[in-house]
Amino acid sequence: MNLEKDDDFFSYVYDVFGKFAQKKPELVSLTFSRKIGYPLINRFSEMSLVMPLPRFQNGLFFFEGFTFEDTQEQRYCLWSLFLASVYHLAAHAAVSRYGVYEKWMKNKTREICIRVIDFIEDMTVEKYLLSKYPEIWKNALEINDKFVELRNGITKTSNCYKTIPKPCDIKDQNMLNKIRIAINPMEIGDTSYEKKRLEIADLLYKNRQLLPKTRLPYCESDDNNTGITFSKKTIMEFQFDDKFSEMVYKLDELWQASEQSRIRLLKQYGRHLKGLHFDSIGVSPEDLPEFVRIRENILPMLRRIRQQIRMIVNLTDSPKTDEIGIVDMQMAIQAIASKGRLTEVFEHNEDRRAEEAWVILIDKSASMRLRFDHIKEFAICVAEAANELTGRNDAWSMYSFDNNFHVLKDFREKYGQRVQARLGGLQNSGLSLLPDAIELSYKMLAADQREKKYLFVITDGHASGYERIQEQFSKIAKKVEMSGITLVAIGVSRATSKRFRNSARGTDLKQLVAKFITAYRAASSDM
After folding, report:
1. Cross-strand bridge partners of residue 282
2. Of 421, 328, 472, 445, which is closest to residue 13 (Cα–Cα)?
3. How many of the other CB atoms lie within 10 Å of CB of 68?
4. What is the pTM of this model?
5. Nearest to 371 by CA among 428, 293, 333
């Protein structure tokens, strides 16, 4: 599957990771988090990786145990660590086989088991980098050395592996050397790989004094409170090859652009929060591999969606049908809800419609999980349909909400990897501040200069979260409709459908997508 790549920070990192890991995006999950300090690996079942993002506070960046000033020199250090972490995680995705340890861990102390496993797999990654990508390993080793210099105040020789602690005696040193030689990436046809790995794991488990007590910053850690926090006066000077340095500068450039865009976006929505009850407003979490996996699974449905769109277009272009002209929106919605004939929704004149603005609002509260089993699948279908139907990036936006409000796609954003990753990150949770979400969407539409505006709400209609929320729900629905914005509810139950002038009931994924396509096409096509 070929995704349209955005020239932004996250797409760049996904691209670097994917090429190095040599895995399809749907096979390895890489996500990002501002809440963790070090990379995380969910080792068992299906491997998933979490990459920390820098946190900026009071003019300083905090990342993987370091504190950096907001200067080009120190940002260079920061993104050097970041890039080393990306390569380290990608190497794990390429060569680590955590599944071999699951049975071995039974009846053992989990904390020690994890230290053993990380020691073995980190060593495997280092051997892999050293043999396959010596230039990248050399850059990582440069970071190793500088970090150890800062930690210990001494110069560390370049021949030492980061995972090997200083041995306490000759016996330990000899044992470590044997283990180091024995650990290698899995080779094709090696039927004894699992047996050899578990023998090494048993040896390390019994001799746990050999395990390192510290972990370097670009390596994974389950304990986000560990590590050394350096003062803002800390300065590291690295000697990298030209390609690595170029990538570091590229990351810095893209990150600054990405953060500026995010801050502008949140300010735009934050201006309309007065009187609303949301805990927070933000950009939706991202999971591009999840989007790719789901999209692959629903490709047959997406193909049918495109066929339905082409059929509608062919009908409206045919001189042999009465289904030609300008869409009467109210009649179109009524026809959809009542399953009436499409020929009645067209006004036969040659005038072109005014430009339109659309908002698609998705309720992802916990109650929606009971009514809709596949909220992400539905959101992806709707987004793909909207993108196919409009042909314009600025014609539609998409938001999700529970007791928080998240931007999935802003009017000014194109439907590329960044938006797709947000769709992949959708999760059901929380309360349903439905009236607040409708009101915020209404305020965004009201500020838009385009003449015709439509608000599609995918919801079960069960608002919850504060006293008299049902009363507020009724008030805002009337307010939106009286303003001239067409409000359409899709998915509501029979009991709550009466609160909307225009609604389409249902729970089946195919049925709801079909209703959305018809309504969207009827309202947005320029016949």
Report:
1. 406
2. 421
3. 24
4. 0.79
5. 428
Residue that has been written with the tokens 């996250």 in this structure: 10
Report percent pLDDT > 90 for the chain.
35
Compute φ and ψ for 488, nearest 5 degrees: -125, 125
Identify which has the larger pLDDT, 56 or 367.
Answer: 56
Residue 467 to residues 133, 143, 438, Cα–Cα distance (Å)? 60, 55, 17
Give the full edge-to-edge strand order of the sheet including 29-33: 29-33, 48-52, 40-42
Backbone angles phi, psi at 105, to 5 degrees: -70, -20
Residues whose CB falls within 8 Å of the CB of residue 342, separated by 6 or more in sequence, listed in order: 312, 315, 323, 332, 335, 518, 522
393-430 burial code (b ≥16 CB/10 A, e <16):
bebbbbbbbbbbbbbbbbbebebbbbbbbbbbbbebeb
Question: DSSP 3-state assignment of 361?
Answer: strand
At 80, the pLDDT band (50, 70, 90 cuts) reads: very high
Specify the pLDDT at position 29: 83
Rounded to a whole number of angstroms, the CA Rg of the chain reads 27
C-alpha to C-alpha distance for 340 and 278, rounded to whole angstroms? 39
226 sits in the region (left: phi over 0; alpha: psi -120 to 50; else beta) called beta
CA separation for the pair 74, 89 (Å, rounded): 23
- Exposed/middle/buried for residue 195 (C-beta within 10 Å: 0-12, 13-18, 19+): exposed
Residues 6+ apart with CB under 8 A from 413: 393, 419
Residues 6+ apart with CB under 8 A from 374: 509
Rounded CA gap, 104 and 198, in Å? Answer: 7
pLDDT grade, residue 447 (50/70/90)? confident
At residue 175, what is the residue type? Answer: M
pLDDT in tens, 179-194: 888 888 887 667 888 9
